[in-house]
Write a structure and sequence with these properties.
Number of strands: 10
Structural class: alpha/beta
Oligomer: single chain
Helix content: 25-40%
Largest sheet: 7 strands, mixed
Distance between the termini: 16 Å
Strand content: 5-15%
């Protein structure tokens, strides 16, 4: 790995839009183009214009690319955990039987193209689409591509040692680690495709296939936006997207018998490397069932992972004592009690750069520019640190960057895309210094009295690097 302190992002979707746009023409379908001018290239950048900013502010829709690898290179990211995501049927089926209108609305919400949506509407098999996206990444693995007049590349890696042992040859290189968002990809929750119930044998066999990939996923999300027969999920959509995609949730749904089988299959090492579980999108009931399952069966050897999330400022779901009103109190966000569990497991928490998630609406409203946006990110870091410090734990070791760029999010003003991330540390350090000089900052336990730069370095790359070195093997 480069000796420079370049950044790590625990969750993003570099190929979501470019893979989707490959379907615009039958000749380019599913192909990753090395020419970044082409829309089916993972390097294709659709810039942030004043008009696109206005569309984002008014409709919370990103009509520009955020995690394309050109922006990633410019923003000084070196390691990206990329999320494979075949869209659920509920995301792309036509609304009210009006075929063209339904597709147009969904294209507006997702930016993946009408042809891609039409393909997904007819596709009966999530797992085949998962493999297609995986092969899309494989196509340009270690291929030199020209960006800004110089040669660059990305490399898929199967473990952290491949990053550490990389011999820098002067070509800027981004390392990509596979992950999956939503275990529906193993072919569950396909009722809208005419499958009344998941086939357990097929689902478990598909996991075995993925574990044999040359670059298997480091972790997978058990849940995503819709019912997948595995566990309960949280409400995750707002605004125009929510009005288009009518999402239903069931707070009483926990982990199903099939869900338990899937978890066991993923975590066992008898059929390949362990694939960890990402807690994001699981509902509260399912998350707490998972904590107890791990406690009872795995002797604390499994770390808890939130690849992209936020705190809700509430103690726990039982007492519901809201400690900090500055946060979004939605239950898709995480309780302080869960932060403790993650820290105790030596886990990791990626802070999501989505203004709908990381703050109360009254704070988001007047946002202008990078300084205030960075302050919302800092509040997340600070809140976890203050809580963990009171408990006598390491305060700054859990938090890291988990942008969810190109994951249909509403980005923070000033940090619209990966290109802007190299500006984030400067603003975070400013807010960290202010906190450290405050009464509460001065009361931190001695082991947690770090400098502002040390804290921000941990957030931007240090904590994720430690976590990957320990568990991505």
């Amino acid at each position: 790995m480069s000796k420079k302190n370049l950044f790590i992002d625990l969750h993003s979707h570099p190929a979501l839009k470019s893979f989707g746009r490959s379907f615009d023409d039958p000749k380019t379908e599913k192909r990753n183009n090395p020419n970044r001018i082409r829309r089916n290239s993972i390097y294709h950048r659709k810039g942030v214009t004043p008009l696109r900013k206005k569309i984002n502010n008014l409709l919370t829709l990103t009509k520009f690319t955020q995690a394309d690898l050109t922006s990633v290179q410019r923003g000084k990211l070196q390691v990206l955990v990329v999320s494979l995501y075949p869209m659920e049927k509920q995301m792309i089926l036509d609304a009210d039987g009006v075929k063209l209108t339904g597709r147009l609305l969904r294209n507006l919400a997702t930016g993946i193209g009408l042809k891609r949506i039409a393909y997904l509407q007819q596709m009966p098999d999530y797992f085949e689409d998962l493999k297609d996206e995986y092969y899309y990444y494989l196509a340009l693995h270690n291929t030199l591509v020209t960006v800004d007049g110089k040669k660059v590349r990305y490399r898929l890696v199967a473990n952290y040692a491949e990053i550490e042992q990389w011999q820098d040859d002067g070509v800027p290189t981004v390392f990509l680690i596979m992950s999956i968002e939503g275990c529906h990809v193993f072919n569950t929750g396909l009722q809208l495709a005419g499958r009344p119930k998941a086939n357990t044998k097929e689902v478990l066999a598909n996991i075995d296939v993925v574990k044999k990939w040359k670059y298997p996923p480091f972790f997978v999300g058990l849940a995503h936006h819709f019912d997948n027969e595995l566990c309960g999920h949280e409400k995750s959509m707002n605004g125009l997207v929510a009005s288009i995609l009518k999402q239903k949730v069931n707070d009483d749904q926990g982990i199903t018998p099939l869900g338990h089988r899937v978890i066991e299959k993923l975590l066992t090492t008898s059929n390949g490397s362990r694939i960890f579980i990402d807690l994001k999108h699981m509902n509260v009931k399912s998350r707490y069932e998972y904590y107890e399952l791990i406690k009872a069966n795995y002797n604390s050897e499994i770390p808890f992972i939130v690849s992209h999330g936020a705190v809700n400022g509430i103690n726990n779901p039982i007492h519901n004592n809201r400690i900090d009103p500055d946060f979004n109190d939605a239950t898709i966000n995480f309780y302080d009690d869960e932060i403790f569990r993650i820290a105790r497991s030596k886990g990791i928490f990626g802070v999501q750069l989505d203004e709908r998630r990381i703050a109360n609406k009254r704070l988001v409203g007047p946002l202008v520019g990078r300084n205030k946006s960075a302050l919302l990110v800092w509040y997340q870091i600070e809140h976890m640190a203050k809580y963990l410090d009171v408990l006598g734990l390491d305060a700054w070791d859990v938090q890291c960057l988990g942008t969810d760029f190109d994951g249909i999010i509403d980005p923070l003003p000033g940090f619209w895309t990966a290109k802007d991330l190299d500006k984030l540390p400067k603003f975070l350090e400013k807010h960290a210094k202010f906190f450290l000089q405050s009464e509460r900052g001065l009361q931190l336990k001695p082991k947690n009295r770090l400098t502002a730069k040390e804290i921000v370095d941990k957030f931007m790359f240090g904590n994720a690097k430690r976590f990957l070195a320990a568990h991505f093997r």
